[in-house]
Amino acid sequence: MLTESVQSRLDAWDLSPEDELVETGSSWLVPVRCEDGAFDTAVAMLKVAKPDSDERPGMALLQWWGGEGAVRVLRRDADAILMPRLDQRPALGNLDDFDDARAFDILVTTTDRLHRQVRRALGAGEGRPPPAGLIPLTDVRRHVFGLPLAQSERLARWRAFAAGFDLGGPRPLPLHGDIHHGNLLHDPGHNPGHTPGQRDSSGGWVVIDPKGYVGHPGYDFANLFFNPIDQPGRVADPARMLQLAESIAAVSASGGSGADRDNGVRSPGEALDFAYLYGGFSVSWGVDQPWFEARMGQLSLIEELRGARS
């Protein structure tokens, strides 16, 4: 049954539901058909935030990105967003579609491209201020530090590390905040250019479902170390983690100058630092999740890899 808030958008935006409503902890999602050529696509996905949802900053950021490295926004109001409906395949976490090397290439270069276009948008050429309401990473850390696990002896070393970690860098940027294998989708109509990893022969890759944070761009790479979430054995491979850290540093530190270069991930060790930071956030949030113990093991592995490099 459709909620009143969903039905009101269907009516106002001339949309027809094509499948059952999907409810998450923070929103309602409905696959829809767009009537009478109102948009440049016949099928779309409607997302409506729940009253207590944390999705609103991310919705505003999606619109601000303007379809550059992110899914396009067809219509938005304060609580809802309409986007083109994209296929789940090919999937970056599916080994039948991509091996790790190719998936890392797409994930890392697409994330880096998003950061570069943000720098252009904020710079002298465009000077577009970011949307209001984005959440500073310092606020995220403050929230996590108040959670029981983050205050426990089990995360004592992590907490000491995270307390002194620079979350902003030389120039904080608007961030997605939750980039992983499932939050990049293939958009055949997206054309980001010809940089390797940003597109294949049939189209491009775009991010979905941002959190809408502000901070050091290194944070946006961190969740890649813990995904695909449903393949913990694949994730907990030290060689794979080091391969990813090398890939992030090679791409993120390869462009720009001055503060822009300094604001990238300058080394594989720094990539592991951000992974360690995010891992502690993640387990503190997810203590009741079925993946919790596996992620605790992955966090310990990243801590060991950091120690081996120091």
Principal-axis shape equals globular
Order of secondary-structure elements: HEEEEHEEHEHHEEEEEHHHHHH
Task: Find the count of extended strands (DSSP E, 2+ residues).
Answer: 12
Radius of gyration: 19 Å
What is the CATH T-level topology of the largest domain? Answer: Aminoglycoside 3'-phosphotransferase, Chain: A, domain 2
Number of separate helices: 11
Report the CATH architecture of the largest domain. Answer: Alpha-Beta Complex
End-to-end C-alpha gap: 56 Å
| Secondary structure: helix percent | 25-40%
Count of the domains:
2
CATH class of the largest domain: Alpha Beta
Would you summarize the structure shown here?
With 310 residues, the chain is an alpha+beta fold. It contains 11 helices and 12 strands. It folds into 2 domains: 4-84, Phosphorylase Kinase, domain 1 (2-Layer Sandwich), CATH 3.30.200.20; 100-309, Alpha-Beta Complex (Aminoglycoside 3'-phosphotransferase, Chain: A, domain 2), CATH 3.90.1200.
